Amino acid sequence: MTEERGDVSLEADIEEASYPSKRGAVKNSFFSARAGGLTLIAGPSGSGKTTLLLTITGVLKHLLQGSVKGKVNLAGVDPLTEEGFNEVPRIVGAVMQDPDKQLAMPTPYDEVSFTLENLGISDEERVWSVLRKYGLEEHAFKPVEHLSGGQQRRLAIAAALAHDPNVVVLDEPTASLDPWGIKSLRESLTQLLKEGKTVIVVEHKVRYFLDMTSRTYVIKDGTIIAEYGRDELLLANAPKKLLMMGIDALPPEAHIRDVSGKDREGKAIVSLDGVACGYGDTAVLEDISMELRAGEVSVLVGPNGSGKTTLLKCIAGLLEPLDGHVRVMGEDPRRTSIRPRGRLVFYVPQIPDYTFVSNSVESELKEVSKKAGVAFRDLVDIAPWIKEALHRPPYRLSHGQRRWLALSVGIAYAPKALLLDEPTTGLDLRFMGELRRLLAKAIEAGAAVLIATHDPRLVAEVADRAFIVDGRRVREVSVIDALKYLEEPLRES
Amino acid sequence: MTRSSTWRSRYASREGPVDPAVLFIYGLVLTLVLFIDRDALSLALIGVPNALIGFALGWRKYKVLIALFLIGFVGLAINALLLTNVGPAVLVVGPLIVRAGAVNTFVTIGLRITGIAGVAFLFVSLVDPALTVRSLERELRLPKGVCFALAYALRLIDLMSKDLREVQGVRVLRGYRSVPITPSDIKSVLTPLLSVGYERALWVGIAAELRGFRLRKVSKEPLRVGLREAIVLTLLALQILIALAGMLGYLQLVVPHTLH
């Protein structure tokens, strides 16, 4: 699809890039990117991928008070100088990792207008054409917080590229996207490459881009340690090579387990009977009847915004069903006498920070110990890194650690039903392994686990049963069918 | 959906009843007046109507914040009793003797913060953040950084309300009070909200700069004062006069001495 033939539009030779609080976050790294080519920077969480992007765009030096030793040439501009940094917005369209945290304006229309107005482009028709291009025209004046994760991601891309920049930089663009969103992203990238743009993607789930990249760099501990051309990456053993470096490159089928022999006679922990759930009087999902059994991991798959989170909240008793009955161990979770309610059912939200109540990991675990009746020592021993992080605020841990801690908090309550909302967003292979270990612990304790996800790999690795959100209904399918459902859009693209 | 060329007509369908710049002036000046004013009666005359309108307009979207604000009155009463409970006794409840000093402090500060909160809810309920940033920078010529920060703060209120609902949900599951009452509760609710808010602010700042915020050129426009804006400014002037009258002691002429 793409070959290395365009002009070099980015060359970065970084001797050392440091934050005020962390020296050498990136060091001894050289990479380049060409017009009309997709350059992939792959590496596990915390390897310095985002720092590298912040370095080449001048953000680290000019906005985060960091220091950079080295040279960057971005389409003839040096972003490390003040004048060069002023030119960066005209040249680059950058989309950061979490769309929810980079949208400044209240509606998609305002968000796209904001970029154009900043750059002195007063063209209303252009705003509409950008919104149309990214499928957001109908949502132009919808509050941004009412958009689904996938729509927010599309909006972040639309706003960053509204002024038609020559260099496009995307940080973990698939992090919160469903397969349909990834398909749409791939189509957008293909179009950008056809237009001769330089595309730089930072990602640890590289399999979505392997067929599109012209060059791939692997970064580990802040240093680029390997470089592959397009042909090398298409070799059969390339995904395994990347896997050895902690990068998720295998298709999900490679991880699928055989669940045919698994005992399906576990006790029903959660039962839903004709449930409708939603907000106000509006049902998002209706007529749902399903059971979750002890010792089983069920996955609930469906597109962004299809109502997966709403159903989880309904089962946890955080939303009252509009119709029907939710029972956990025969009790209505909203009216249970079990205290704390988390002993009956625990919901771990997509943003792990919502779970925490204390200002240090140590006091967080002490609180868990007090409320859940688990020995503090046992909690500290769950993971080797906990001891070193005891005095740090949970909010300052890495993304993977925060997610892990939130899940550990939930499991410590030994709930009969454990509900996880998109637990793998932004998680690399190492933390996927940790997640599997924690889930095994919950299963061993006899919990019924329900995971809302659109991550095919998670489905392949942990699911015993699968449910698909189909319109406003939920239906049970085989794990293989759930995987096919998630992989279909990617095959099409 | 209007698709005309000027920013004002483009946003016509979303414009509030009053120009955001005028509402901003109203809110800012009234807040200053309420800070300066120490007369209970003029504070009541200004604060209570603004609070009633502001809380009524904001109730649907900000009821949790309003509830938290009202809970804060418990703290205010305790402070007043602990620090200013002097003068003649006004009320005796068992061993507790409430004196004029405590009543005076509670009433004065209570009216002041109620008025300020009312004005704040009135402002955030009536303005659109995107319109505000344009209106303030073009009509009031405020620095674009200040306007952007203010507009984003307005947007953060909605985002934080959403975050608060999520935090409250998990607190219930973990066995904590959903509505914070003690200082420790408040701290444990505020910390995740501020943490998420800080991260949002940081990345929004970076994203805005990468999208050329520093290059933003602002065209000037005259302040739009129509009939409704004129009414708001007149009401503002009237309230300034009431505050002046209160501070200078003229309100004593028409109010029975016992109420003072």
Structure summarized in a few sentences:
Chain A is of the alpha/beta class. Helix content of chain A is 33%, strand content 26%. In chain A, the strands form 4 sheets. Chain A has a 6-stranded mixed β-sheet with strand order 5-6-7-3-8-9, with helices on both faces.
Features:
heterodimer, A: six-stranded mixed sheet, six-stranded mixed sheet, 26% strand, globular, B: 260 residues, mainly alpha, two-stranded antiparallel ribbon, flat, disordered N terminus
- Beta percentage of chain B is under 5%
With helices defined by DSSP (H or I, 4 residues minimum), what is the helix count of chain B?
Answer: 8
Count the DSSP helices of chain A.
Answer: 17
The shape of chain B, in one word, is flat
Describe the structure.
- The complex is a heterodimer of chains A (493) and B (260).
- Chain A is built from 17 helices and 18 strands.
- Chain A is of the alpha/beta class and 493 residues long.
- Chain A has a six-stranded mixed beta sheet, with helices on both faces.
- In chain A, helix 7 (179-194) links the parallel strand 6 and strand 7 (198-203).
- In chain A, helix 7 (179-194) runs parallel beside helix 17 (479-492).
- The model of chain A has no long low-confidence stretch (mean pLDDT 90).
- Chain B contains eight helices and two strands; from the N terminus they run αααββααααα.
- Chains A and B meet through helix 3, helix 4, helix 6 and strand 14 of A and helix 6 and helix 7 of B.
